Amino acid sequence: MHRLDERKAFILQAVVQDYVATAEPVGSEAVVERYGLRVSSATVRNEMAEMAEMGYLRQPHVSAGRIPSDLGYRYYVENLMKPVPFSRLFSPRQTSLFSPTNPEVGEVERLLQATCRLLAEITHYASVATAPETDVVSIRHILLSQPAADKLLLVVVASSGQVEHRLIAVPERLSEHQMALLDKMLQERYAMRPVRELLHAEPLVVPPEMLSVEPVWKLTEQAAQDCIESLSQQEVFLEGLQHILEQPEFRQVERLYPVISLLERPQMLMRLLQRVEASGKVQVIIGEENPLPEMRCCSFVASSYRIGDRIAGTVSVWGPTRMHYEVATSAVEYIANALSHVLTQISVSS
């Protein structure tokens, strides 16, 4: 990437900002008038022509002004844009989502869904988040009770705050001694162990002193494994799809359909976002840089969030390459840090 001199950099910044705001090509006269440049429009036009040859600007039609290329956006992101203070992006009401007193904090699925809604509301782009991965999630609590004579209730609480439960049919009411035996086996087998480790655990060989509850244990163990399976499936949360529909770039069905189709295929998105997780910092992927051909008319900004010192999942926003990159990167960075803080608190308190 060539380093631009001061005037070219200023003109590129002006073109990016005006094009992002209006979705209309930007002419040299408009740049001179809007930004009060002390040079003629012919000089700006020549500078624009040189930047087009360098690959930073494009001219969609012969008589039109210029628009940024993917390379132009890349230069803007790396050299020209400035972060937006989070206090200008988020109101106190919005940041209270990550307060420990917020009821949604206790349930990670609700928290991630609410986080996606907030990101979409702030940026006006679609937002996607992945749930914590199983290698950073362990079993915080596993509880067994008998709410009815022929039913057991198994509740599994993960360190991420996710909760799974199963009702288990049993032939008759169990004694307190039998319930104590089952609870002892559950705690020894599952409590505080990582979900990923339990996912492929062999069935427990019931010790001789527990044979009196072996039939019920097998039912309980199967229910516990069902809960583990559910906890191991990394969910993808999506909000703000309507913001994609609002963008002028996607008014044509042939451009819109591949993007919508991909956003609705969470496994494809998850594989892409897992690449982001490895970096551990905010990443901006612009247009042709996207490894998914269907999404090369889009950009996305993503960052991983952590539980403790381990990367757990990803938050991101998706929109056209004509994106408010400073808003998107600042919002994603704040959200990733806030999620890391509150999910680490949940994990530590377990």
Distance N to C terminus:
49 Å
Following the backbone from N to C, one meets helices and strands in this order, namely HHHEEHHHHEEEEHHHEHHHEEEH
Number of strands: 10
| Major beta sheet summary | 5 strands, antiparallel
Low-confidence stretches: none
Task: Spell out the blueprint of helices and strands.
Blueprint: H1 6-22, H2 28-35, H3 41-54, E1 57-58, E2 67-68, H4 70-80, H5 86-89, H6 92-95, H7 108-123, E3 126-130, E4 139-148, E5 151-158, E6 163-169, H8 176-190, H9 195-199, H10 214-232, E7 236-239, H11 241-246, H12 253-263, H13 266-277, E8 283-286, E9 298-307, E10 310-320, H14 325-348
Antiparallel strand pairs: 1-2, 3-7, 3-10, 4-5, 5-6, 8-9, 9-10
Which key phrases capture this entry?
five-stranded antiparallel sheet; 350 residues; 18% strand; 10 strands; 14 helices; alpha+beta; three-stranded antiparallel sheet; elongated
Description:
The protein has 350 residues and is an alpha+beta fold. It contains 14 helices and 10 strands. The strands form 3 sheets. It has a 5-stranded antiparallel beta sheet with strand order 7-3-10-9-8, sandwiched between helices. A 3-stranded antiparallel beta sheet has the order 4-5-6, with helices on one face. The protein has a two-stranded antiparallel sheet with strand order 1-2. A hairpin with a 4-residue loop joins strand 5 and strand 6. Helix 1 (6-22) packs across helix 3 (41-54) and helix 7 runs antiparallel to helix 14 (325-348). It is elongated, with a radius of gyration of 27 Å. The relative contact order is 0.14.
